[in-house]
């Protein structure tokens, strides 16, 4: 085995060669050689070092950094359960196609299968969610690269001594390195015929190709907020409502980009036997669609635009439905949809919004307008597995890569509480500018609009699904040293969003939960009036 100090410094040199700019560490004894080596690289200005006490938080911090920087980000831990706590972030990275480098310190191989302290089977810990390399010497590092868009697990065997020996802090080993493996060459698109009544569905991380196809073909665009395609004149804001009306029944073909996960109506549409689905494969671990696909192409285009009134019919219906929706949402007390609307309007051109799972991203999907091209707002979400894990940490990581820009996050109260340790930052840690808006309705209101929220399950609903917490978020924020505003009207929210204090701050928007199911049913009923306008 290589001396731990030499192996650790060679590993850090490898990261720098891969283009890594951010390294996240959690304290531990077995990982101490890496900690010292990363600190030396930080001192030399080669990487930015971030320290967290919670491994799950650290993993999602690195995930957020990697998602928005476009570069691999490293997170490393000590052995045992610390390594296991990276698993949620590794899974999200695998399904979302993010270059996360998870590094775990391990005992020497001779101690495997024994009762040595903090020793478990770490090789293959993340199964097929990451490519694993078990490394005991500098020779094991030779030729190792990072496949772009997929997590890598580096398991380093460190024997004692675990503190620096021999080398000066400025000594950098000369190790043959491999660079990030690039993916994606120039593609020749397949030309689709104009004819069938077609829609373009843009799920998470679709990017500009979905928008460009819709514009070229003159087709309606059903773009989720985090698709990166929701700009221009083609996006249909209330698409998920209109799909279930008369216009939705006329669709004959759908071209699907990215990873659509928000809407059951969209899934039902794409599963219809009378719909021809053409798939442009998404990034990530599983690219096969969960519904029949007639063709799959890496890139698609059209030779001419559809000159039928198809798009105009959708736009007219969308305008009617949007007006009716705004009338419902903006009347009465501050509700979750109004919060999503105000937050969306507060993101300036070039700004970023990180959105939590469950209701917030679905509310944003209904309320976000489509900015003109060139004034794009970056909307990011962890939609690989669509969990609530680590959302605050991911948003902080994303904001760290965007200094000098306006950054916001929109999350529910359960998501906020689930990642509260993401707000535990030491006095020397970088604090990006990030306004976190928390929709606090005292529990998990997403379940109120699902099957579990039906009246017949009411006696058990609060205990099993809503899980009210009754916590004072202001007190929690005070304990964490995070500025906190509490707002109860759209005007107060607008004022808070327009006056950021700098650094990380929390804006708590108090909303009702007892009317969520009725409100959802009222909104879904709006499609009837919109259909008559088509």
Unreliable runs: none
- The protein's oligomeric status is single chain
Radius of gyration: 24 Å
In percent, how much strand structure appears in the residues? Answer: 15-25%
Structural class: alpha/beta
Shape: globular
- The overall average pLDDT, rounded, is 92
**What is the overall number of helices?**
18
Give structural attributes.
534 residues, alpha/beta, six-stranded parallel β-sheet, 32% helix
Write structural notes for this entry.
The protein is of the alpha/beta class and 534 residues long. Helices cover 32% and strands 16% of the residues. It is built from 18 helices and 19 strands. The strands form four sheets. The protein has a six-stranded parallel sheet, sandwiched between helices. Strands 15-14-16-17-19-18 form a six-stranded parallel sheet, with helices on both faces. The protein has a five-stranded parallel sheet with strand order 9-8-10-11-12, covered by helices on one side. Helix 1 (4-17) crosses helix 2 (32-43), helix 3 (55-69) crosses helix 12 and helix 10 runs parallel beside helix 16. The mean pLDDT is 92.
Q: What would a concise description of this structure say?
A:
With 534 residues, the chain is of the alpha/beta class. Helices cover 32% and strands 16% of the residues.
